[in-house]
Design brief:
9 helices; 219 residues; mainly alpha; 0% strand
Length: 219
């Protein structure tokens, strides 16, 4: 009885060892590929940044200077006004290595700052939109958050609030609601973010993750 068990144990150990070696080789190759790509990126010369897709805040279209005595709203406005003269670019999902390959190593500090400015922007827009929503200023909140979506924000709360307002706060009929939601879908489909599928699900779009789920069995 011991021999069959021992033989099974040895076979399992051999297969486990082979599997671990394969995983190790894949990791080593991935690391080697990364460092080769990084070496190549570090040799790329500076390129022009004139054609970047800069984000420009439409100060004349958003509800600035309407905070009144609301200190939280005033602070939210001020955070966005502080970005007025900053360069803002959405590089969500793009690695520093890829940025260096595309625009040159010498530009990486500027590009990183532009991306940080974008992160500050969409977080500030989300905060401002929430504050306006909580104050019952739904049309203003929708304008702020719709601008955030136009910049291709991947903050799921932005889409969640918009869907809620379209359905329950703006007095839209069913056709208008669907038209508004349909307007968000193309942007969501092109997001380069881990939250993409979650956002698409909020918008009623079936994603591969949902399709793979096994159906519930009831008795």
């Amino acid at each position: 009885m011991k021999l069959p068990f021992l033989a099974s144990f040895i076979i399992l150990a051999v297969f486990f060892n082979i599997s671990m070696r394969r995983v190790s080789r894949k990791i080593e190759k991935k690391e080697a590929d990364f460092w080769e790509k990084e070496r190549e990126a570090n040799s790329v010369r500076r390129k022009s940044l004139e054609n970047l897709e800069y984000v420009h805040i439409p100060y004349h279209l958003l509800p600035f200077d309407t905070a009144g005595d609301n200190e939280a709203l005033q602070k939210a406005e001020d955070e966005l006004k502080a970005l007025q003269f900053e360069k803002i670019v959405n590089f969500t999902g793009i690695s520093n290595t890829d940025l260096k390959l595309e625009y040159g190593t010498a530009n990486i500090t500027s590009l990183t700052q532009y991306d940080q400015n974008y992160t500050t922007l969409v977080r500030a827009l989300q905060n401002w939109g929430e504050l306006l929503y909580n104050a019952g200023r739904f049309e203003d909140a929708a304008n702020v958050l719709e601008f955030a979506v136009k910049t291709r924000t991947d903050i799921s709360g932005t889409y969640r609030l918009l869907v809620d307002m379209y359905k329950t706060k703006l007095g839209l009929n069913e056709e208008e609601i669907q038209k508004k939601i349909d307007g968000l879908i193309p942007i969501a489909k092109n997001l380069n973010s881990l939250s993409k599928n979650q956002i698409l699900n909020m918008l009623g779009v079936e994603t591969p993750t949902q399709k793979k789920k096994a159906p519930l069995v009831t008795f």
